[in-house]
Amino acid sequence: MRITAKKIIEHKNQGKKITALTAYDYSSAKYFDKAGVDIILVGDSLAQVALGYSSTTQVTLDEMLIFTQAVARGAKNALVVADMPFMSYQISIEEAVKNAGKFIQAGAQAVKIEGSNTHILEAIKHLTQNGIPVMGHLGFTPQYINTIGGHFVSAKDSQKTFEILNMAQSLERAGVFSIVLEMVPQESSKFITQRLNVPTIGIGAGKYCDGQILVSDDILGKYDEFCPKFARQYSSLKDIIFNVARAYCNDVENGNFPSIAESFTLDTNEAQKLENYSQD
Ligand code: KIV
């Protein structure tokens, strides 16, 4: 049965850790879902890992919608959350609702929005009132990279931790069902997590969050241009992909592919006719 946003909050109350991973295609979503991942995020990190852009600010709404449709077809049980891309919710409340609605129609069950300024709080209220569950995102917020100026750890002292807690509590009051905390010291995320009713999902935020999320290309070892300190690499898919492509090229070049078993054949009589014809 499909995990709902409400169920994710229940996990926190029951002390059950929430598992989340990003996915961008049908097959990955299918196997993450089978493995029992609670939340599959169609993250705008696909800008870098699937589309080769240099920043998440470059991915468009239309691109995000295609990936969301693919993931939604693969995930039968997990809660599918779609990341609303840069400038798809900032311009007006009306645009935020209209664009979030497109993600729900594409098959997601919730959307994620970065930040907590007054416009964003208002947008979250409208989305939730219109039946669209929202996941918040605080700490390092990649869509603000051009104003932040780099990949920095947030909440690095007690004052900044209080500020993030205040933001998180505003998001909670606006109606989010969970909050991603990105690149936050573990003592700070523990302090914040203990003071919220909705679960925190950490990425580079230590073990005290209610759940964890990672970019799937990082845990699979597929994207090699940047691997953050907080990502645990369980495989080296990039080496597997390289070795498979190399072995295939060798087989083709040496005439070892395709074999007879990998080919279609005529029956002997018909083959003989072609042989005779060639000899005429
Ligand atoms: O886009 C993404 O993958 C994300 C995660 C890092 C939480 O927002």
From TrEMBL:
Gene Ontology MF: a single term: magnesium ion binding
Residues annotated for 3-methyl-2-oxobutanoate binding in this entry: D44, S45, D83, K112
Catalytic residues (UniProt): E182 (proton acceptor)
Entry's localization field: Cytoplasm
Alphabetical keyword list: Cytoplasm, Magnesium, Metal-binding, Pantothenate biosynthesis, Transferase
Cofactor binding annotation: Binds 1 Mg(2+) ion per subunit.
Gene Ontology cellular component list: cytoplasm
Record CDD domains: KPHMT-like
Pathway: Cofactor biosynthesis; (R)-pantothenate biosynthesis; (R)-pantoate from 3-methyl-2-oxobutanoate: step 1/2
Catalytic reactions on record: (6R)-5,10-methylene-5,6,7,8-tetrahydrofolate + 3-methyl-2-oxobutanoate + H2O = 2-dehydropantoate + (6S)-5,6,7,8-tetrahydrofolate
Cofactor list: Mg(2+)
Residue positions binding Mg(2+): D44, D83, E114
Domain of life where this protein originates: Bacteria
This enzyme's EC code(s): 2.1.2.11
GO biological process: pantothenate biosynthetic process
Classification via Gene3D superfamilies: Phosphoenolpyruvate-binding domains
UniProt xrefs under Pfam families: Pantoate_transf
Major site of localization recorded for this protein: cytoplasm
UniProt key word Magnesium: yes
Similarity-based family: Belongs to the PanB family.
Function: Catalyzes the reversible reaction in which hydroxymethyl group from 5,10-methylenetetrahydrofolate is transferred onto alpha-ketoisovalerate to form ketopantoate.
Oligomer and partners: Homodecamer; pentamer of dimers.
Name of this protein: 3-methyl-2-oxobutanoate hydroxymethyltransferase
Gene this protein is translated from: panB
